[in-house]
Amino acid sequence: MDASTSWARVWRLLNEEERTILRAHSIIAHYKRNQTIYSEGEEPTELMCLLKGKVKISKEGVGGRSQIIRMIRPIQYFAYRAYFARERYLTSASACEASVVCAIPLRIVDLLIRANSRLAMFFIRQLSVDLGIADERTVNLTQKHIRGRLAESLLFLKDSYGLEEDGATISIYLSREDLANLSNMTPSNAVRTLSAFSSERVIALDGRKIKLIDEERLRKISGED
């Protein structure tokens, strides 16, 4: 895949010399399901753009319990905040399914940003949007009850990845543990709450597939309406 496609959102902000630099340093990497992309505590070295697949950003909490902080979809950028904060990674990233990532060394990105104010503003906006989403998720996961948290997570996944051709099945199949980690609850609570939603005909379950039957009611449970 050409760099102009991989980095389409920033490509238009660059001049020809900058595009040549970006093209020369871009690397395509393939990850298997559950494969680690980077780990908490590592030194950040690359800006990453997800081209295909789904990636989860998580942080280990008390007692070794993992909390999913973000879900990455194509074409989103990730793995660069720690570099500009002059920190090591505070989170880990892994592939939820077979995924393809385009990466460029952050030292190159740093040079491009210093020379291109439009590119710098692009990443400032990206970080600002991500911070706003993170703030909202934090409030939702700490103030809502269990049913509200799980409902919010299902809607979050639907808004992030969309629905399959049937117009109802969420286009990502998370394990019950991952769904629990996304919703700040134990796996057993996630299983019980999903079963309750299914019994109430709010959703339908088929293994890891989750079909939205009554999205309006799910939004009411989430507290959005």
Largest sheet: 4 strands, antiparallel
* Distance between the first and last residues' Cα: 43 Å
Task: Record the strand order, biggest sheet.
Answer: 1-8-3-6
CATH topology of the largest domain: Jelly Rolls
Nearest-angstrom radius of gyration? 19 Å
Q: Roughly how much helix do the residues carry, as a percent range? A: 40-55%
Total beta-strand segments: 10
CATH class of the largest domain: Mainly Beta
Total helical elements: 10
Strand content: 15-25%
Mean pLDDT reading: 92
Domain module tally: 2
- The topology string of helices and strands comes to HHHEEEEEEHEEHHHHHEEH
What would CATH call the homologous superfamily of the largest domain?
Answer: Jelly Rolls
The name of the CATH architecture of the largest domain is: Sandwich
User: What ranges have pLDDT less than 50 throughout 5 or more consecutive residues?
Assistant: none
